[in-house]
User: Fold these one by one.
Assistant:
Number 1:
Amino acid sequence: MQDLTVLVLEDEPFQRLVTVTALEKLLPGTVLQAADGDEAITALAGCSHVDIVLCDLKMAGMDGLAFLRHATSSGKVRAVVLCSGLDPILRQATVLMIHCLGLTFLGDLGKPFNIEGFNQLAKRYKAHCNTQPRPLLPAELPTLNDVLQGLDNGAFEAYYQPKVTLAGQDLVGAEVLARWVHPQWGVLAPAHFLPVMEQHNLIDRMFWHLFEQGLALHQQLAAQGQAIHLAFNLHPAQLACSGLTERIPMMLKRAQVPAACVIFEITETGLLSAPASSLENLVRLRMLGCGLAMDDFGAGYSSLDRLSELPFSEIKLDRAFAHKMQSNPRCAAIISCSVALARALDISLVIEGVETAAQQTRLIELGCTIAQGYLFARPMPQSHFIDYCRIRLLASTGPSPSNKGDGFEL
């Protein structure tokens, strides 16, 4: 393991001695120690940086919380490991504070100190330091001309991420996501181009391009006997457009796609200050027969208020709850309550961001039925998604002799 500088902030003398002794045997680097925040600040002043702070929280004098705040302003602390006996809920809130301070949080060891647990976190830190992500973009975002050229050339493509049943992983639908297939930088996610599009009012142009692609795909799948629901993301600026609910039914009719097979996803934050025209469009979309999903449910401040006022047919629980439910019991409780809420309102609940089999098992225990996430499939281009659907159809009906041995690998 590379040389590390570790600072142990622990007020209990015996626990500090045990921790420092164990670290000195494990690490080839430097181990500093402090009995309170003031001593830790002095230790910081005497070195160039500290790779990892093992931080207790509750102590006499300057406590760990105050020290972490100081560590941010010093710029010398690179990562934090909590080593505290405080209530888990308080430690979880501290983790959120650490993220807000801009510090890297490696993990929570609790008490007593676990040297093997720290060894694993130190390896994670080393891997983090050694990882140099492949640059996809130049230092600056693409220019307006770059984006316009991409739109003119049809370089913005619909990618599809399946929604599946948690228990049997049966395909129930897919979310349509925007990707820019750039000739130089490869496939780019929205973070690379949405800022430019928002600034120059190009979101609408891209949306109709993706909507047309999605409807064409639906036609193709329906002809093969597998019609599914497709969910499209609506930007808040689009909701205020008077032509939105005039153009959608015309395109649905031309493509012969039932309105009930189309869902529009809207984030709660996009509705906080929605004008009357936006609310009218939401009502008209539901009158048309389309579904409405509140995206990132639970991530904002007025989810329940908006859910009670607007005609949503689906809620998509923010991915943070699935990610944190193993470490934070309250997240599991919120998921369970969301299941009950969806049932009481007679609407669908989709769990976002499912990435591990352990999460899948726990979500099933909590009563969840539908999810999307990397555990099941990543967003994929149209040709891959068509094969994905074909494989699912074959799995549900049983392979015929003519296609025996046919397969597809994502």
Number 2:
Amino acid sequence: MPRSLHGGRHELGQNFLTHRPTVDRLASLVSRSSGPILEIGAGDGALTRALARLGRPLTAIEIDEHRVEELRRSLGGVRVEHADALRYPLLAPVLVGNIPFHLTTPLLRRLLVTGAWERAILLTQWEVARKRAGVGGGTMLTAQTAPWFSFELHGRVPSWCFRPRPSVDGGILGISRRERPLVAAAERGAYERFVRSLFTGRGRGLGGALTHAARLSRGDALRLIRRAGIDPRALPRDLDAAQWAALWAALRS
């Protein structure tokens, strides 16, 4: 296939999923949702074809114009758009895609602040999927968004399941928008700054970090932590979504 105007395989991060069981797994996860589907980065259409069999409205976006033309010829019932995932409106209830590994972080950041989607099933780099799901400890980005979204890890995808083979494995990450946010939307900016201050601030453990971030005495910081039902020996990466929300509520009160 000719080289895209946007670059070759390396520039576009094209690692096409060729493992049929993984394709079927992604389609099965999407089948548990409802409503129109937006596929991000359709590539050669392996996943697109499986999604089309679900019989729901499906839009597939792809930045490689040559693959867009081929998909339009072979998938008459699918709306195929020549578009950049970093700019295309994320308005469908369900998002799914084999995300270009080099764009994983900017795409995730955009998904978590943009659009009105309800459910996302994403094939990302394994380390990204694992960290976002909180396996082995939470990250700052996960903690900052957890009051509005829940994260699930649905399995690891070995690198040999892709063509060309990438240098790292993939992971299937599920993200759901909470029907009832744990923190009010109007407080999101302040809450995100609070989380950042605990992850990046001075102090030993959660108590020390809260002492400096909130300008409290050590005793007041420990009382707030206990009021939120959190072990004072915990670290920021140890807290789950409910504990972050409880700590924020205790501080606000």
Number 3:
Amino acid sequence: MNSKSTGTLPGVRPRIAVVGSINMDLVFRTPRMPTVGETITGRHFFQTPGGKGANQAVACARQGATVDFVGAVGADLFGQQALAGLAAEGIGTGHIVSSDAAASGVAGIFVADDGANSIVIAPGANDLLSVAQVDAASPAIAAAAFLVCQLESPLDSVRRAIAIARAHGVGVVFNPAPARDLDDALLSQVDYLVVNETEAAQLSGIAVDDPESAVRAAGALRARGAAVVLLTMGDQGVLVSSPDYTRFIPAVQVDAVDTTAAGDTFVGSLTVGLARGHDLGAAVAEAQYAAALTVTRIGAQSAIPTRDEVIHLMTQRRGSP
């Protein structure tokens, strides 16, 4: 497995590089999802910073990491607000380009009373993230314990970031969302592949609808080259498929009000746990607690918990973490 990280010293913040998207989320609370052609009255509306890359960066920062971000925003109000929000979290923004060639990315999010959500994304400036920009950020990537990537940015740029990480012994955590077809050459460079049922099905060709099919899909993804596969299945838990074992780690049961950013919180917490030197099972379990706290709150980044909050919930539920 490719990682120069063997755990950080007590009191030292692990370094994480995130290459990915930055959006402004426009959130509509609704009694239920509208059907095609239907207009319904929502309960309320608000906007909050989002984007899978930015969400995962915030999750890493709130779990105690030093984070450098590589991305792009528009030279508009949403872009200014996003940059200010990331900086307020202590996230390095020196490798984020502000461009007047496109508007900042926007996501329209419908959240129903049962916590389910549907999302439409207009990528905007996220599509401007270039290979050259990633190359310019190579010192930040090389200095990290782990690189985190998703697929709300151009694939060529993601591929280049992963190549830089591999060349410098940096661990790669890859969340291939939104789902799209990927080649084995890319998957073989991934240390930790984090997918949900939909993404796992598209990449493996195996429909995931129960634990048995999840095991088969994860096995197929490992056969394609991913070193470790983590298949998240909502309130059913997470399937961990590694060279050493395949097992389910149960979800933390809570009353969900909004599932937005739960997966991003899981990715960020998992990465920081691994960078601290936690074994895989412990890192996954802690990430499950972080994700559980997220779904009890409304919004994306506004819902992501701090490390102290995660430790408190873990202590409440099972004693000393």
